[in-house]
Write the structure tokens for this entry.
Amino acid sequence: MEALTKQTLSDQSEKQVSQIVSGAEALLLGLLEEGVDTIFGYPGGAIMPIYDALYGYQDRLRHILVRHEQGATHAAQGYARVTGKTGVVFATSGPGATNLITGIADAQIDSTPMVCITGQVATPLLGTDAFQETDVLGISMPVTKWNYQVTDVTELPEVIAKAFFIARTGRPGPVLIDITKDVQFAKFEYTYKKCEKIRSYAPYPKVNNDDIEAAAKLINAAKKPYILAGHGILISGAQKELLAVAEKAGVPVASTLLGLSAFPCNHPLYVGYLGMHGNYGPNVKTNECDLLIAIGMRFDDRVTGDLKTYARQAKVIHIEIDPSEIDKNVKTTVAINADAKAALKALLPKLKENKHDKWVNEFRECDKIEYEKVVNKALHPAEGGLLMAEVVNVISEMTKGEAIVVTDVGQHQMATSRYYKYNTTDSNVTSGGLGTMGFALPAAMGAKIGRPDKQVVAIIGDGGFQMTLQELGTIFQFNIGAKIVILNNSFLGMVRQWQQLFFDKRYSATEMTNPDFVAIARGFYINAAKVSLREELKQSIQTMLDHNGPYLLEVVVEKEENVFPMVPAGDSVGNIRLE
Amino acid sequence: MEHPNGYSTEVKLFVISVLTENKSGLLNAITIIFTRRKINIESINVSESEVAGVSRYTIVVKITRERAEKLVKQVRKLIEVLGAFLYEEEETHFQELALYKVPLEPFLNDSNNRIEKLIRDNFARILVIEREYIIIEKTGRKSETQKLFEELKAYGVSEFVRSGRISISKSKRRTETFLKELEELSANSLVKE
Ligand SMILES: Cc1ncc(C[n+]2csc(CCOP(=O)(O)OP(=O)(O)O)c2C)c(N)n1
């Protein structure tokens, strides 16, 4: 396979060789040029010529047949998030295409590179309400970084090249290319040239030296500086630079949900996780620091709470590649509109060696309060059913914080973000911005395919699992060795928690009568077990981790447990509740 | 009034001028940015600019400066948008065009030339005269084209149409120079450092 792609590449550098191929084949050749080897997809009428061409490329392009197109998008996201490569999805027109929308919206808000290829009815049928014709361009427009419909086969190579260039550069995102059926059949003279430039698109703004000087001055003068590390660190690969900046200037580092694993959790400067269910110190200290250094994050409302009372006392440095995020929610003192890695590299030599031990200790004092009020009880309950925190803690210890952890949305997601101790980078995959239940199972599939060498553990609620559980079929068919942990509380737990705290305990439509999850897994020929006793927890997790191949472990947890601390929605981060 | 973040809370007219590649679907992509934020477009005009293949959108909105600035940044994010510029009304020269269809009859019986005088006084002109009606044309600001409409009402206006605003900024920058700078800028910011 490698030989073949190399062949095409070296041929091209000598002269632009052309060959007569169909649009369908041209697409596959284009994917190979872009280094694609895996596709997540589902066939149908309007994309059949492409699937037919794929039959002849099975040795070079691995196609993972999912069980629902939404699963293909989340799998592509999981794959992209752990490899840094662009995830690729195929789907047919109409319902195939509309089934992609949730995953595309998720990839857009969580800046994940993805290229979706949809088949479309033949060009003359556009706009006639033909069978399975949907305006997928119109539907996907607000949730894609770019989209395009190909109705002229000679445009196809250029459009594919542009799609990959746009998806992976700058702030990454999803691109959708809709290809009409006649274009897939049409023969033409194919040549491929990678896209290197679009004049209306400047993905990597140059670091401005004045901004760097101004930022360095603020950091060198600060008494209580505080770094908020976001997803941008992982996307730009700035982990080392972040570490160097934090260590040199002695600045404590907290992480956003999507920034988790960018900074080692066991580092003395790491102070914890930010936001609604984040750690106590990171939240309250936001309103006590004198300088906030936000890197590759976008001040989401789940991080800031009430903006009117958020960090008003502090000066703010915002390092961010997307100019529309700067001054959107929080007014900056110094904005550095650039890639995080480039900015931190430029910043490092301007910083004075410094220490802020007293300030860092203030976080530790907060940790003690949080430990006593929350953590200790969550990790070492005296009695009662298993708690989410202790399960996550055991998984964290048994995997040495080195697994790729994929979470769904809800209480289990917050428990995992709080209690898993990420010690290797790019090991947190979750749906942050969109909060898509059903994300974890297919995303774990994609993550395991992208990093077969790593232990991949999906932690999912009983509710979210039932949104995409059909992907167990994919996991079985392709023997994808992801480990699946269901934290079963027989409730839509997070919603129940809000009902308890803010709606007088009126549990409207949140209790679940659940199926036998172990039987379901076994129905898909996947090994499975169920555990509800504390003394059996470790052994059952060990069995799961040791198993060669996919495995599902249902853990029965306390039905009405709440995740704390909590900043009530719209409240100030300073008013974080510990119980 | 001032908001704590330093922005004025005053709602006023802003002109957003957008230069784009000529791509189908882009009008939709631009307008949904406004719709999603519940911002009503007062008027919109699209035409090819002085540079071949480059379109110019002139969009008028009535919002606060803070919202306007954030909106313009969202418009710039679209891949095919070459540039988006925010102007207050006073920073532009602008016009609109209005057409009025009125029945011919009052003209024929207009012994005092009252209608003709009205047209002259409003710096309007007669575009066509048909057997049944005449069409009057006027360029000007909204208040001016509206004033003529009110005055013509007495004679019966059977159709009235007003174009979106078109405007030219008072800045000296040439579109071509801007595009050239943009080419250099994008060429310099293609790769990660
Ligand atoms: C697709 C989708 N529908 C609804 C929601 C709203 N929601 C957020 S958390 C939650 C409950 C999740 O329950 P479960 O999967 O059992 O996880 P738990 O909170 O119990 O850990 C719901 C319904 C959502 N985030 N996504």
